[in-house]
């Protein structure tokens, strides 16, 4: 087991990881599953997106344990949506840790969780920097970029939704600066949405300064507010 990570059981019974390096949990200790659904799937109005078109593209900053991808992709499979899900992260937890999180029990599409664990198991420890594709049902694909997110050249007008789920700005400041958020804005399609668990004032100002229309939403348990930012 990676000694820098340990498993926590959160208040809704779902599990998450705690990073000794960043001194933070990957999800809210008040409920990992509850937070992911409320902040990202519901906050980005994924149900509405899947009702409006047969294909969708999503970018996630901070793939982590894969919970946001798993929930979103499971819903896409249920709705028979062709989903392209791009995710950026420096590293992915080991197959052993992913298996012990038991996320397959949280969704109907258990094949998705098994796919991720099988892929991760092909690497003994650290995954080399690079781009990896995991194809699954309905011609959907998970494309993982392993490396430094700020070094990726994001395409313009490419994504319907963006999940900004990196470790918080005190620990990972580069992913919350206006320069990076401007790239996220430019990569969104018109009418697209970015959602994040952060409601910090400087994050909101960076979103607004990049051109987003920002909405404060009630937060999940343990958090007063979260943000949803729309590109008009």
In whole angstroms, the N-to-C terminal distance is 45 Å
Helix-strand string: EEEHHEHEHHEEEHEHEE
Sheet-strand content, in percent, reads: 25-35%
Q: What is the residue-mean pLDDT, rounded to a whole number?
A: 95
Q: Biggest sheet: strands side by side, in what order? A: 6-7-5-4-8-9-11-10
Molecular shape: globular
Q: Could you tell me the number of beta strands?
A: 11
Broad structural category: alpha/beta
Residue stretches low in confidence (pLDDT < 50, at least 5 long) are none
**Helical region count?**
7
Specify the biggest β-sheet. Answer: 8 strands, mixed
Helix content: 25-40%
Radius of gyration: 16 Å
Report on the structure:
- It is a single chain.
- With 232 residues, the protein is α/β, with parallel strands linked by helices.
- The protein is built from 7 helices and 11 strands.
- The strands form 2 sheets. Strands 6-7-5-4-8-9-11-10 form an 8-stranded mixed β-sheet.
- Helix 4 runs antiparallel to helix 5 and helix 6 crosses helix 7.
- It is globular, with a radius of gyration of 16 Å.
- The mean pLDDT is 95.
Fold blueprint:
Elements: E1 5-9, E2 15-19, E3 24-25, H1 32-42, H2 46-52, E4 55-61, H3 67-79, E5 82-89, H4 95-101, H5 110-121, E6 130-136, E7 140-146, E8 159-164, H6 178-187, E9 188-196, H7 201-209, E10 213-218, E11 225-230
What's the short story on this structure?
By secondary structure, this protein is an alpha/beta fold. The protein is built from 7 helices and 11 strands.
List keywords for this structure.
232 residues; alpha/beta; 8-stranded mixed β-sheet; 3-stranded antiparallel β-sheet; 11 strands; globular
């Amino acid at each position: 087991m990676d000694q820098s990570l340990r498993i926590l059981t959160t208040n809704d019974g779902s599990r998450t990881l705690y990073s000794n390096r960043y001194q933070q949990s990957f999800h809210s200790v008040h409920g990992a599953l509850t937070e992911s659904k409320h902040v990202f799937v519901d906050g980005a109005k994924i149900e509405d997106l899947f009702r409006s078109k047969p294909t969708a593209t999503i970018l996630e900053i901070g793939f982590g344990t894969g919970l946001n991808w798993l929930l979103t992709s499971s819903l896409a499979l249920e709705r028979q949506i062709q989903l392209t899900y791009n995710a950026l992260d420096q590293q992915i937890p080991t197959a052993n840790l992913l298996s012990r999180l038991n996320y397959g029990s949280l969704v109907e599409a258990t094949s998705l969780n098994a796919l991720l664990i099988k892929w991760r198991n092909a690497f003994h420890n650290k995954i080399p920097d690079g781009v990896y594709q995991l194809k699954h049902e309905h011609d959907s694909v998970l494309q993982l970029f392993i490396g430094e997110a700020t070094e990726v050249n994001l395409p313009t007008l490419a994504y319907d939704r963006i999940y900004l789920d990196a470790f918080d700005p005190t620990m990972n400041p580069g992913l919350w600066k206006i320069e990076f958020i401007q790239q996220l804005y430019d990569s969104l399609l018109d009418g697209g949405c970015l959602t994040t668990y952060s409601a910090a004032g400087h994050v909101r100002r960076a979103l607004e300064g990049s051109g987003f229309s920002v909405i404060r939403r009630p937060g999940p348990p343990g958090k007063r507010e979260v943000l949803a930012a729309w590109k008009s």
